[in-house]
Amino acid sequence: MSLCPKPTMAEIDLEALAYNYRQLRQFVPSSVKFLAVVKADAYGHGAVPISKRLEELGVDLLGVATVKEGVEVRENEVHRPILVMSGIYREEVEEVLRYRLTPVVYRLEIAEALSVEAGKMGKRAPIHIKVDTGMGRLGLLCEEVPAFLNKLRRFENIEIEGVASHLSTADEEDPSFAEEQLKRFSWTIGELKKMGITPPLCHIANSAALFSLPVAHLNLVRPGIMLYGSYPSPSFKEKISLRPVMSWKSWIADIKKVPKGFPISYGRTFFTRRPSLIAAIPVGYGDGYSRFFSNRGEVLIRGRRAPVVGRVCMDWTMVDVTDIPGVGVGGEVVLMGRQLDQEITPEEMGERIGTIPYEILCSVGKRVPRIYKG
Ligand SMILES: Cc1ncc(COP(=O)(O)O)c(C=O)c1O
């Protein structure tokens, strides 16, 4: 068998990232700050290069999910404030302060531990209070916030820099529940004001709300998916044009001519219906190309669509290239992205296997090298 000269790789277009950032920035008044969400390795795009580029572009803050993610970004010379949006554990307090990370907080013992540790270091620890206005995930219920803040007053080395919440339906056509969440959030901010607390940053808007619910901008927006050129839900595609940042490519490692009725891959779930040319592509679920693409996915070769045949293996995927003239070993295969006038988007891939573009992007595995352009 001939071996493919290059590995399967993901090309990351930093110019497309810049374009998307500028597109989104246009929708937000310049007085509103911009936090770029780079959690989950920047939705699979590589948190460090993406954060560096976003910093150059002028984002005000970066958002990660975990302390480990924040440390990775900070250790690579990124200077902007980094918000740890999932909160932190007691054991991480010292690291949080050392790496100048800003956690969201919704548990008293974490606030206390931060205050004690910050005191030892002669610092004050900035925090954002996390409020659950209806997401049903993390945070204090709105009515719990005043009592929580009263207790927080004891911790003298804490500084309430922000108050945050998260919308559960901002991508849906009907804005009524997002508006209800916003109402609850505004009520909470009002209660804080009555207590003499005015956090400089109040934020609730993800990509969908940034775009379609301007009242939710408050003084900081917090988009993720649209920076990477994908859409929170299909209806957004008609309203704003973004450029996909990631293209996922491989090469044909081998082609074989097989007779009609030949079985392909594990479990013999596909038999050729005619004499066929079957190409073996060195990508599989070990690279994040989901096994659900078995007999369901498509890839681009020479600007045409080739169907995935048989089961996706850990390291290999087979495609039927019988109808593609001029196909040969070493030819480029696009799993996601554009080739000539054809394009496979993360949205299309998600629809094929019953998931969302977020999961498609985040699934591209560590084994796939990221190559940065621009
Ligand atoms: C807390 C929080 N804020 C903001 C975002 C960004 O959302 P989106 O990628 O839909 O813009 C996320 C993403 O899941 C999140 O969990």
Number of domains: 2
CATH hierarchy, class of the largest domain? Alpha Beta
Helix content: 25-40%
Question: Strand arrangement, largest sheet?
Answer: 2-3-4-5-6-8-9-10
CATH architecture classification name of the largest domain: Alpha-Beta Barrel
- Total beta-strand segments: 21
User: What is the count of DSSP helices, taking H or I runs of 4+ residues?
Assistant: 11
Q: Which ions, cofactors or small ligands are bound in this entry?
A: pyridoxal-5'-phosphate
Distance between the termini: 35 Å
Helix-strand makeup class: alpha/beta
The H-level CATH homologous superfamily of the largest domain, spelled out, is Alanine racemase
Q: Stretches where pLDDT falls below 50 for ≥5 residues?
A: none
Mean pLDDT: 96
Largest sheet: 8 strands, parallel, barrel
Q: Rough shape?
A: elongated
Look up the CATH topology of the largest domain: TIM Barrel
Structure summary:
The chain has helices at 14-25, 39-44, 47-57, 67-75, 93-98, 108-121, 145-152, 176-194, 207-212, 346-353, 357-363, and strands at 9-13, 33-37, 61-64, 82-84, 101-105, 125-132, 140-141, 158-164, 201-205, 220-221, 246-251, 254-258, 263-264, 270-271, 276-281, 298-301, 304-307, 317-320, 332-339, 342-344, 370-373. By secondary structure, it is an alpha/beta fold. Pyridoxal-5'-phosphate (PLP) binds next to helix 9.
